[in-house]
Design goal:
2 domains; homodimer; Spermidine Synthase, Chain: A, domain 2
Chain lengths: 288, 288
């Protein structure tokens, strides 16, 4: 492979990003999807699933920090966390930063994603895989939420591919209904809902489905450089509607107690609180 | 031209966006730069200068609203506005939305950009070109700020290309020194400072230069879908450091009085106030 080779993201048929490839590290057809890991010139190592960029070393902090710290600190006393997907280990690593977390169960359907991440993306997961609080299951997240006991988790973090292909079943009504059942009364579920400037339909569908089983359903936003298209929407559903209203000052106190303050590159208490303020171009896709 | 033709943005050597082209509308070598206007499948019409995407019909609102409404409403009584660059007319159109604005002088160096924008991007400028408050000058913005009288503008909005090529002179110390001189004591100058995840050097340089001539210099952020790379930094310099601290509630009152409220797709009073909260990965490039 020469250094003039480029990889084009194929998420959208008519627009997208491309990376110049320094070195291809792996190309695997797993039981579920095509997996490519390569070294880029611009963003460190990059993992691509079925042509869609999942994570880069350079900017993974944006997505992980916002997907993890926001629900955990808004809740304020999370002990049991369920992670679905997130085979790169980045979400698990951020969850385990919270010293109050007693147990983090991670269910990733594709063992090859985990294996390749351990081999090539160790900078993202750090020591998460060997943390005694982590329980990593290669299996079906849908089946897990179907079988889990009532009120067994304080937070559910869904870090899936887009609602096409292998990730599609994570956006169904049955899934959200089970999430509501297995969450504690103050529990919260978050999931990635795509980039509204390009994926408004997914945003509308996902919000409608979540809303059926939770008293409070919305999205919050983060600008992830390599999820191109401006703000990404992160889905939020909880039984307690006050969780999104907590002041930056209170979040700062909690983040200090949880050992998060000062460890982040995107998340701050103010950005946390502000992330629920939606631009009209996003808000208009949400019910009510 | 077939519909299989793509245009690759060439801003960065190793990463970038690409558009599938529905129809090329214009390709001109002006006195200053290469100008391409095309119809995309994904973002309506797009203007590209020297290989860099300047504006698309689909998402221009993000950039224009944040570059215009934030300084004008933070100031609160802007009557005379200087716009440098912005040949597409989009900034001018947003400035003239503010009913308190008495005069908007726009200085664009490249008359071909204006001509092509009038021909192909009329949806962006609306009726701005024929507004009696608008004074459009094809000329050198540097010379204009050098010659303008002291304290003659309440706000200066610099909508330039990146600090390479034709736009480079708009990021110099002499330019900012003149901006400080021709602004009123409560005046503010804003400019685009690129995307910090890719252009940290430009952010640092520009902030350092602004800081020499203004008591308060910072940046605020907006996520513009086709300025790929996450948050874009918009430079801010003012003599009065309180302008960035105005509450969302007060901004809402001002926006109502100025006839802005309800006209926006990205800007809201809350997003306005929150845009000055910077992620650490951006804040660390700013002085002190």
């Amino acid at each position: 492979m020469t250094t003039d080779e480029w990889i084009n993201e194929t998420l959208y048929p008519d627009w997208g990003q491309r990376f110049r490839v320094k070195r291809e590290l792996a190309r695997v057809r797993s039981k579920f999807q095509d997996i490519v890991v390569f070294e880029s010139f611009s963003h460190g190592r990059v993992m691509v699933l079925d042509g869609v960029v999942q994570i880069t070393e350079a900017d993974e902090f944006v997505y992980q920090e916002m997907l993890v710290h926001v629900p955990l600190l808004a809740h304020g006393d999370v002990r049991n966390v369920l992670i679905i997907g997130a085979g790169d280990g980045g979400v698990l690593a951020r969850v385990l930063q919270h010293c109050g977390v007693e147990r983090a169960v991670m269910v990733e359907i594709d063992g090859d994603v985990i294996a390749l991440s351990k081999q090539f993306l160790g900078s993202i997961s750090g020591s998460a895989w060997s943390d005694p609080r982590a329980e990593v299951i290669v299996g079906d997240g849908i089946a897990h939420v179907r079988q889990a006991p009532d009120a067994s988790y304080d937070a559910i973090i869904v870090d899936s591919t887009d609602p096409v292909g292998v990730g599609e079943v994570l956006f169904t009504e049955e899934f959200y209904e089970n999430c509501a059942r297995i969450l504690t009364p103050t529990g919260v579920v978050v999931n990635q809902c795509g980039v509204p400037s390009m994926q408004a339909e997914e945003l509308r569908d996902s919000a409608r489905r979540r809303g059926k089983f939770f008293a409070h359903s919305t999205v919050y936003v983060a600008a992830v450089p390599t999820y191109v298209g401006g703000l990404m929407a992160l889905g939020w559903a909880a039984k307690d509607a006050t969780l999104t209203k907590i002041s930056a000052a209170e979040i700062r106190v909690r983040a200090g107690a949880a050992s998060i303050l000062g460890t982040t590159q995107y998340w701050t208490p103010e950005i946390h609180a502000g992330a629920f303020n939606l631009p009209p171009y996003i808000a208009r896709h949400l019910p009510g």
